[in-house]
Design brief:
This protein is mostly helical. The protein contains eleven helices and two strands, in the order ααββααααααααα. Helix 2 crosses helix 10 and helix 3 packs across helix 6.
C-alpha cells in the first residue's frame, strides 16, 4: 500500500482494496481490485435498475390517473405510508421465506420498496396542477388521456422525479443485503467480513455511497432539465418576492 493510502488509516486500506487485489483471510484467494469491484457492481446496478424500471412503470401511470380523476388518493397515500413503514429487511425476509431466494424474488421485494415514494409524488404532483389549466385543456376538446399526457404529466414531472430520486437511493442502499437472498451484489463484502476483511467491508460501503450520490446528482440534473420553463420562472419569481432585492435609486 502506498504512503498516501497509509496516511488515511482505515479509509486508506479501503481505498487500496478498491484498486488493488489482496489475499483473502480464508482460502488464500485474491479479493479486491477494480475487476472484482466491477463484478460486484454490475449485478448491483442490474438489480436496482430492474426494480426501479418496474416500479416506475407501475407507479407513474397509476399515480397520474388517480390524480387526474381525483379519486383513490386516500388509499394511495396511506398504502404508500404503510409501505414506507415496513422495514426493508423484513420485506425481503418475507419474500425469501414464502417465495424463495433468487434474483426475481429479490427484485419484486425491491419493487415494493420503490413504489411508495413514486406513487405518492405522482398523485400529489398531478393534483397540484392548476385546475383552471385542466379546464382550459378540456374546453379545447382534449380527452382525459390527452390531458394527462400533454398537460398534467409535464407539470407534475418535477415532483415525480423527486419521488424517483428517493426510491432510487433507497433501492441502491437496500440492495446491499441481497447476498442474504442468494444474489451477489456490493453487499457481499459487507456481509462476508471473514472473506473480505474490514477493509473490504469499508471499501464496498464507500462504493455504494458513491453510487447513491451519483444517482442523486444525476436524477437531480434530469429533474431540473425536465422542469417546464414556466415553472422555473414561477419558482424564481416566488423566491424573488420572498427575498426582495432593493436597489438604491440614483440621486439626480
Amino acid at each position: 500500500m502506498t504512503t498516501t493510502y497509509a496516511v488515511l488509516g482505515e479509509f486508506g486500506h479501503a481505498i487500496d482494496f478498491i484498486f488493488h487485489s489482496h489475499e483473502s483471510q480464508i482460502g488464500g484467494t485474491q479479493v479486491g481490485g477494480l475487476g472484482q469491484i466491477w463484478d460486484l457492481m454490475w449485478p448491483h446496478l442490474k438489480l436496482s435498475g430492474a426494480a426501479m424500471a418496474i416500479a416506475c412503470a407501475i407507479s407513474v401511470p397509476l399515480g397520474l390517473w388517480l390524480g387526474h380523476v381525483g379519486k383513490g388518493g386516500f388509499l394511495a397515500i396511506n398504502v404508500s405510508n404503510v409501505g414506507r413503514a415496513v422495514p426493508s429487511l423484513a420485506l425481503i425476509a418475507f419474500f425469501v421465506a414464502y417465495l424463495g431466494v433468487g434474483f426475481l424474488n429479490l427484485m419484486l421485494a425491491l419493487v415494493l420498496l420503490a413504489i411508495p415514494p413514486i406513487l405518492t409524488n405522482a398523485y400529489t404532483g398531478t393534483r397540484q396542477v392548476d385546475r383552471e389549466t385542466v379546464d382550459a385543456a378540456r374546453g379545447m376538446g382534449m380527452t382525459g388521456p390527452q390531458i394527462v399526457r400533454r398537460v398534467e404529466l409535464p407539470l407534475a414531472l418535477p415532483l415525480i422525479f423527486g419521488g424517483i430520486r428517493i426510491s432510487a437511493v433507497n433501492v441502491i442502499a437496500t440492495a446491499t443485503i441481497a447476498p442474504l437472498a442468494g444474489v451477489t451484489t456490493l453487499g457481499d463484502p459487507i456481509i462476508n467480513v471473514n472473506t473480505y476483511g474490514d477493509e473490504g467491508r469499508l471499501a464496498a460501503a464507500i462504493v455504494v455511497a458513491l453510487l447513491a450520490v451519483v444517482t442523486e446528482v444525476t436524477l437531480g440534473a434530469v429533474q431540473r432539465a425536465v422542469t417546464p420553463r414556466g415553472l422555473k420562472l414561477t419558482s424564481a419569481g416566488r423566491r424573488q418576492h420572498r427575498f426582495p432585492i432593493t436597489r438604491r435609486q440614483a440621486i439626480p
